[in-house]
Predict the 3D structure of the following.
Amino acid sequence: MSLSGLLFLLRNFHSPISSRKIKPLVKPTRLIISFKGLQYQWHDFVSKNNHNAITILALWAPVASIYLLDIHVFYTIMSAIVGFLLGARDRLGEIRSVEAVHRFFEKFPEVFMDKLHVAVPKRKQLLSSGQQAELNKLDASRFAPFWNEIVKNLREEDYISNTELDLLLMPKNIGGLPIVQWPLFLLASKVFLAKDIAVDCNDSQDELWLRISKDEYMQYAVEECFHSIKYILSSILDKEGHLWVQRIFDGIQESISKNNIQSDIHFSKLPNVIAKLVAVAGILKETESADMKKGAVNAIQDLYEVVHHEVLFVDLSGNIDDWSQINRARAEGRLFSNLKWPNEPGLKDMIKRLHSLLTIKESAANVPKNLEASRRLQFFTNSLFMQMPLARPVSEMLSFSVFTPYYSETVLYSIAELQKKNEDGISTLFYLQKIYPDEWKNFLTRINRDENAADTELFSSANDILELRLWASYRGQTLARTVRGMMYYRKALMLQSYLERMHSEDLESAFDMAGLADTHFEYSPEARAQADLKFTYVVTCQIYGVQKGEGKPEAADIALLMQRNEALRIAYIDVVESVKNGKPSTEYYSKLVKADIHGKDKEIYSVKLPGNPKLGEGKPENQNHAVIFTRGNAVQTIDMNQDNYFEEALKMRNLLEEFSQNHGKFRPSILGVREHVFTGSVSSLASFMSNQETSFVTLGQRVLSNPLKVRMHYGHPDVFDRIFHITRGGISKASRIINISEDIFAGFNSTLRQGNITHHEYIQVGKGRDVGLNQIALFEGKVAGGNGEQVLSRDIYRLGQLFDFFRMLSFYVTTVGFYFCTMLTVLTVYIFLYGKTYLALSGVGESIQNRADIQGNKALSVALNTQFLFQIGVFTAIPMILGFILEEGVLTAFVSFITMQFQLCSVFFTFSLGTRTHYFGRTILHGGAKYRATGRGFVVRHIKFAENYRLYSRSHFVKGLEVALLLVIFLAYGFNNSGAIGYILLSISSWFMALSWLFAPYVFNPSGFEWQKVVEDFRDWTNWLFYRGGIGVKGEESWEAWWDEELAHIHTFRGRILETILSLRFFIFQYGVVYHMHAAKESTTLSVYWVSWAVLGGLFVLLMVFSLNPKAMVHFQLLLRLVKSIALLVVLAGLVVAIAMTPLTVLDVLASILAYVPTGWGILSIAVAWKPIVKRLGLWKIVRSLARLYDAGMGMIIFVPIAICSWFPFISTFQTRLLFNQAFSRGLEISLILAGNNQNAGI
């Protein structure tokens, strides 16, 4: 779902569908223009003598803004449809389940050899000669080492268990069997199903085989057992024993050829044969010993008895001499005495596999069970059927580098960080164990610990501690995870190089050894050298030298990563301070280091810089100083919160070939790569962010690249043509503020210099996203502010000048136009509500309606009762829904979308709409976008009320209360012909938006409705609100310091003027409401309005009295209290007398709140905009007191409903289930119970 989350469609009651917006307004507009003498309930300045101009504006302005929004709506719909069709054409989503992986598995070796393997001469010969069986066997033998390495990496990553590993591993297919041996997860339980069919079948041999062959893998299991038994027995028996095996299997083959299998074999006795074969295989798979050998002989003799006396009818007439020899040997007791124990690894593996085939009775249809493992295998196998360039040999492929900027983020979680508990007693380790329970069990098994082992048991071993830290870090957004993922490129190249070298040196011996490659390739010097020639990984850790000098744990962890990954290179800026000519001198060096054999840093390059390289934004400057250390033809830019997978690394050769493919007029300069957001399972918010991001990086960028040709560089897995970019300005623009979103400027730069940016979805890279609402808001604030700066940049101007008309429009709606339409969505609500407020407060709406009723003019009545209907992402959700359908199926897409609705995704997207609008609009008005550090940790802590208030007060709370106030005004004074139903249709969308903006931060706040937390939050908030602070006090500690920080963006004369103009809208409330009071006596003279200002002046004086500083009147405390008390009593007495003696009513007093609160905020907004002048006038303290009063009031309006909800425990339980999955919810409750005497046990 796009973050334009709300679309409001204009609906005219009783109007034709074909002309819903314009035509119904034309005739009423003419009538309103012609109306004279309309009755206004306030003193009118403009409309009465100007053809009711403002009334016309109130009716037409929402229509005009909706037409501008329609551009975005039409693009969203069309791009979703086109992206869906393009994805279907590219065969995305054809394999979307484990069941599909099982069904298509036999095709994988062939397509793998076609796409990811270099050409094999023998394969071409077999293909041309039509030897399909030999070709299948060859393909399987080449595919097996790659598949097995993929599966082993899944086990090393703890996504699958040891049992699943055994089931997923593929036999080497290099033995003497004439068939392809498939992994056990395809054949599990198939033998027993075939046995049951055979036992129950009374039909002919052909019918029996037809029933078995309906399931291809059942057929393969039966054939493999037949050939394996023959091969194993023939290998371990000699002379007469070998002859017996030959005669038995020849007899079976002859019986099959004569179609007599039903009469020659008693299938009812098959269970006995299987039992004896299991006994034989069970003994032979063990280590050789005298007892084992004797047991094997006895087991084979038992098998002989069962075969001859119970199962098989043997015709001795054809081979009398052979059978006589066999019987003589049996009589003498030497038929099986010369048994050769199977010590050969290949034969031993075959015996173990046969034993598994004959003993596994449970289906493996759901293997692998882990969702991430199955997702990865589904995508990899699906990508084999997609269009991609053919791979070159490793020795001929383009060389490339991977480039990751790092500053001071987490490298590895320490034990202290994993054990640190939050207020609920929940540690990060506990959180991970509950979120990934199966992976935790697999991890304990891998380090040879019991599945139920306590955490403390692991702390006794230094190696287990390191493994624990790595396990946790590989599930977070850490540098360790990124490094592990990117080093898979080297591992993949080593495997590919090793196998290619074997094939080129000796094809036949390579065919025999291919299955052993997965155990030897990492130790091959030639493979390692070839991989290092083609791949370089540089992590540019800007302050690594400083961290190392200060003994920071990050430096030690980076050093550990270098020791564990010999190909890893670290670039950093070294600052050397010295004294030259008696003066202090500072020199800067860009350095590249690696770990030597002793684990110490070894300097490779040191480049002296002319000065401090950090002149602009930090991240791009970090990249710019180290880009010289990259090598090769291409460079892949990777953020430090990304991941990679071994199976995807196998396709890097294919991706690099895209640089030489035809993608249009210009050769590709940036290859876009698909991303998978791996943080979606952490919480519901993470899931929303993941689905939104996935929609953009797949379907969205698919359309941007083709056919629109306006895809830019939106993040870091893209692959740059290194030579193209380092000779044309580099990959990172670093000017402060304007290049805050440095990624997309690389795309701008590439396109302006006649580059071509493509997008490819047969390969994917993992990507972490923010998982907490505050993190998400900060990230979106950064992106929206960066987009605001793009609007002001010369790059956008030049692209707009150089693009053709259609490409320019495409570029607009996909970059700055998206944020403009996002902001316009909110502005449309404001325009509509302020228009309705004008019609209500001025009274002109009721006056026109009365004339329409008198004249019976339905068109005029319809125009006045135009409604906005609420659409929860009906159109903007289309890309996400179609993406779900394409890659997950219709049913799964429907369930996922409904589930998101129940998890309040609409609230989240509406809230995000406000975030983007605020920061984009602020940047347009004032400039000054800035980088906002979001943090990439796990959000398991409760966010305090004050922290949320500081972050969202101006971006959401103020605007939400303004919308609510407009709706209350219209409810109180508006005229609606449709009654309550009309008001609901009019306001439900706006109420939803207002409530989402006000309460979403607390709905999505862990433990946000627990009473004890709420009490502590209120105490913390009041302490923060009334702490005056001082020099050096941060905004987190004092309201005054925070308030000053919030005003920092208003610093230019232009900004002050714009803020003043925008603040004038708040004065319409007082102007309209006072004329509706009973005290006004229906008068429309200006004197009524001036009297209201006189009352406001009195309230202002009262505020000055109550804001007197007690410290300044330390010697007159009693007098000060007396003055304040008298003032309060006088006000209350005057109010009572006015109500009793004048037309003023209690309702008028309540109405005055609606009038004066917005006016006060307007005065306050103008005052802070002109802060320097207000300070010179000596009024700043009063303004600050007024601002504190408003923040206290807004806080209470938000806090009271939260406190009421916290009285009901079930709300807190529902919220926990809403935010986290069921396992974590149970774990959280158990943790609270087990806390016992813990000081936080009651929390």
